Amino acid sequence: MSRFIVVGAGIFGASTALHLARDAPNTKIYLFDLPTDSAQSASIDINKIIRREYASDLYRTLADEAMKAWQGEDYKTFYHKSGWVVVHGNQDTSLPRPPAECKRMTHKELRQRFDSVFEGCQLDGGEDITYNESVAWVEAAKALGKTIQLACTAGVIYRKEEITKLCFVKGECNGVYLKSGEQLRGYTVVLAMGLLRPIDQGFLLGQPTGRFVNISR
């Protein structure tokens, strides 16, 4: 039977654990979270914007999938369709092209509809203004909590304990050391600790070439 340890319970780690549990119901999966929430965690921010205005075709495809999931039964409570306005200046050449659902607005229409928002803005009349009503914002922290709840319901073992080091045997990572002194061995380890979490030589036990999965870098 496959066994996994996911280190990090942000949206990368929690969703990975959830999908592993759903895809392989008999798999033993640990999801380790920090004992206290990190103020730097992007996953517990107040809100996030859900949009498909990306320059990459791959990102737009992923965004379409995400928007469908957000409007599904599990997450629709946290999904708020609000739309957004983008004002492209004359020098903005690197912005993604607007998707088909975008509507162009004149300066007069912008002022009539969103005057309180753009009050004080200096527009010279040469800007390209688009409005996309499909864009939404989501309650990130609550959605993350829901993902962890769903993962636990699917059989994931959720623990708020600090991992201090990875276990290596003959250069291969097969487990973790906990701050409490407990060791868990014989697992595939997934690191989902975020871009701001340094992975130092002490954490890796001097084996930076060990085999493990890092989905956040």
Task: Provide tags for this entry.
single chain, 5-stranded parallel beta sheet, 3-stranded antiparallel beta sheet, 14 strands, 29% strand, elongated
Structural class: alpha/beta
Terminal-residue CA separation: 28 Å
Q: What is the makeup of the main sheet? A: 5 strands, parallel
What's the number of helices? Answer: 4
In terms of DSSP E residues, the strand content is 25-35%
The counted number of beta strands is 14
- Helix-strand pattern, N to C? EHEEHEEEHEEHEEEEEE
**Shape category:** elongated
Radius of gyration using CA atoms only:
22 Å
List unreliable stretches of 5+ residues.
Answer: 205-217
What would the average pLDDT be, to the nearest integer? 82
Kindly report the spatial arrangement of strands forming the biggest sheet.
9-2-1-13-14
> How helix-rich are the residues, as a percent range?
10-25%
What does this entry show, briefly?
The protein has 217 residues and is α/β, with parallel strands linked by helices. 24% of the residues lie in helices and 29% in strands.
What does this structure look like?
- With 217 residues, the protein is α/β, with parallel strands linked by helices.
- It contains 4 helices and 14 strands.
- The protein has helices spanning 11-23, 57-70, 107-118, 140-153; strands at residues 3-7, 28-33, 47-50, 79-81, 84-88, 103-105, 128-132, 136-139, 157-160, 163-169, 172-178, 183-185, 188-191, 213-214.
- It is elongated, with a radius of gyration of 22 Å.
